[in-house]
Each structure stands twice: as structure tokens, then as C-alpha cells.
Amino acid sequence: MKATGIVRRIDDLGRVVVPKEIRRTLRIREGDPLEIFTDKEGEIILKKYSPIGELSAFAKQYAESLSQMLGCLAGICDMDQVVAAAGNGKKELQDEDITRELGEFLKERKTQNAKAGEKRYVPVVSKTEPYSQEVISPILCAGDVIGAVLLLNMDQKDLFEEREICLAEYTAKVLGKQMEQ
User: Fold this and answer.
1) What's in the keyword line of the UniProt record (predicted)?
2) What is the C-alpha separation between 135 and 150, in angstroms, rounded?
3) How many angstroms separate the CA atoms of 136 and 2, rounded?
């Protein structure tokens, strides 16, 4: 565990303020859920909760199925990082933080099919070059956006069409319903 040198007192209601610097570094925003753990030494551990992370094995299977069926790079992300990726280029995507632009786009709650160079193209993670085309479909759970299904294409010839958009939306709905149960 990393020491920060920051000390906070518990108030009369049992609350502790997580310092702004730590919230910014860990991308914790107002309203974000946190898991609370304790260990044998009496330490309290706060961890940012990812509902999609709970389904990481299930999400990985879905990403692999989409990738095999469509022949593209498929990914599933929560609101912070890519939790599952499959296909050519998955190592560049898996466990990477999503861009601020993608986080903002997901708040709009709409599916997008865009080509690289278009004004509406949204970079997914900062490490990768733009793909020739992307489909982004938000995952909704109980009315909240909790992540997205990503289809990314490097091939300029085989562009995504209605079939790929429908599959991304279907996968997003299935994952959202799975989280509600």
C-alpha cells in the first residue's frame, strides 16, 4: 500500500473526506460507488466499484464471440477502463483507461457508428491509433450508463453496417439486463 501522508478525521456522523488529489488521480467522481474492505491488520480499503467488473468473465466471453463472429476487435468497458477485449489488437485495449471523450460520449446514451477522421469519431483509449471505424453502444442498467460495447475495425474495406450496430446494441442490452439481476 502506498502512503500519501494525508491524515483526515472522522466526523460525528462517521464520514471521512477522500482528498481531492486522490479522487482526481483515481478518477473518482461525485456519486461513484466505492466498495469497502477490511483486512486482518485492521486496515480499511476503499475500492472504486465497477459493476461491469463483476461480470468480467461473462463480458470476456461476449467480446470473444463478437470478435469471432464479426472479425473485428471487440471490447467491453466500464466508465473507467476496458474490462474485456478480444480480437487482433486486444493487448492494446485490455485494462486500458478509457478517454475522457468516451466517458463524455457515453453520458449521451446513444449508439454511434463513426469512421476515423469524422468529427464525431471518439477515441476509445489514449494508447491506440484511430481505427478506420468504430461502433460504440452504451450499457444501461437501471437507467444509468455503466459502460459500453465497443467494435473497432482496422480494415478500410470491410466497414461496419447495420448488422454490427444491432449486435453491439443487443450485447449492451444483455449485459445491462444481467447487471439488473
Assistant:
1) Activator, DNA-binding, Repressor, Sporulation, Transcription, Transcription regulation
2) 6
3) 36
Residue type, 11: D
Q: 152: which residues sit within 8 A by CB, 6+ positions away? A: 72, 73, 74, 75, 89, 93, 124, 131, 133, 134
Indicate if the alpha-carbon torsion angle 166, 160, 87, 141 is positive or negative: negative
What is the CATH code for 52-180?
3.30.450.40
Rg over alpha carbons for the chain, rounded to the nearest Å, is 18
| 19-36 pLDDT per residue, tens | 888 888 777 888 878 878
Q: Which residue has the cell 450499457?
A: 139
Cell (9 digits) for 27: 478518477
- Alpha-carbon distance of 161 to 147, in angstroms, equals 22
Enumerate residues 6+ apart whose C-beta is below 8 A from 162. Answer: none
Distance CA 117, CA 52 (A): 30
Q: pTM of the entire structure? A: 0.75
CATH T-level assignment (fold) for domain 20-49: Pemi-like Protein 1; Chain: D (2.10.260)
Q: Calculate mean pLDDT across residues 61-84.
A: 93
